[in-house]
Specification:
The structure holds 2 protein chains of 2 kinds. Chain A is mainly β. Helix content of chain A is 0%, strand content 55%. Chain A has strands at 3-7, 10-12, 18-25, 32-39, 45-51, 58-60, 68-73, 78-83, 92-103, 106-108, 113-114, 118-122. In chain A, strands 2, 4, 5, 6, 9, 10, 11 and 12 form an 8-stranded mixed β-sheet that branches. Chain A has a 4-stranded antiparallel β-sheet with strand order 1-3-8-7, with no helix packed on it. The termini of chain A are far apart. By secondary structure, chain B is mainly beta. Chain B has strands at residues 4-7, 10-13, 19-25, 34-39, 46-50, 54-55, 63-68, 71-76, 86-91, 98-99, 103-107. In chain B, strand 4 and strand 5 (46-50) form a beta hairpin. Chain B is globular, with a radius of gyration of 13 Å. Classes of the chains: A mainly beta, B mainly beta. The interface between A and B is medium-sized, with 21 and 24 residues.
Chain lengths: 124, 108
């Protein structure tokens, strides 16, 4: 069974830092893209960042580029999101998700397994 | 910058009725790399459709996706009680993904 479990959320002051972790099991971790998606309270989904299977390809939404860093450790089946210079508008539940898988010339482009999320609150 | 506009914002229907949800993109979604997700209250999202029209594993046949270019549709042929939820479309045609604002399907 595919499982993704986030941790590391909590209350942090504006300007502070937080590191989220996502531990995965039940699939070949190093074969998949991985994604962070967030959801502010009562709001919709917002894609944050994603990272390629070997960790070299990384993409971010404009509002977090330069402040957030996505990374992965394939030996530990773990995904991370280092969040610096946090702002009130970063307050949200952060989900990690298993994403695109490619085999040969065929790719399955979707976030097909999600964790239950970890809440980050940025407030003084 | 890609913008996805979902309509209507809220759809009030009864069980057994047909639901038609729209997702309009501000630019062409190349290769129809568009996905649909369902989110029930208090739960993580789950994927329903990818590449605009391919059902994900385990998704019932009452869910179908269609469209290309800038206009996409998610259809639920006959609403079951568990289908009342919020639905999001997602553009995956570039390296930075975008979600639409969501359509809430509520019980009438």
């Amino acid at each position: 069974e595919v499982q993704l479990v986030e941790s590391g959320g909590g209350l942090v002051q504006p300007g502070g830092s937080l590191r989220l972790s996502c531990t995965a099991s039940g699939f070949t971790f190093s074969s998949y893209w991985l994604t962070w998606v967030r959801q502010a309270p009562g709001e919709g989904l917002e894609w944050v960042a994603h990272v390629g299977p070997d960790g070299s390809a990384k993409y971010y939404r404009d509002s977090v580029r330069g402040r957030f860093t996505i990374s992965r450790d394939n030996a530990k089946n773990s995904l991370y999101l280092q969040m610096n210079s946090l702002r009130a508008e970063d307050t949200a539940t952060y989900y990690c998700a298993r994403d695109t898988y490619c085999s040969g010339t065929t790719c399955w482009r979707m976030s097909d397994s999600w964790g239950q999320g970890t809440l980050v609150t940025v407030s003084s | 910058e890609m913008v996805l506009t979902q309509s209507p914002a809220t759809l009030s229907l009864s069980p057994g009725e047909r639901a038609t949800l729209s997702c309009r993109a501000s630019q062409t979604v190349s290769n129809s790399y568009l996905a649909w997700y369902q989110q029930r209250p208090g739960q993580a999202p789950r994927v329903l459709i990818y590449d605009a029209s391919t059902r994900a594993t385990g998704i019932p046949a009452r869910f179908s996706g269609s469209g290309s270019g800038t206009d996409f549709t998610l259809t639920i042929s006959s609403l079951e009680p568990e289908d009342f939820a919020v639905y999001y479309c997602q553009d995956r045609s570039t390296w930075t993904f975008t979600f639409g604002g969501g359509t809430k399907v509520e019980i009438k």
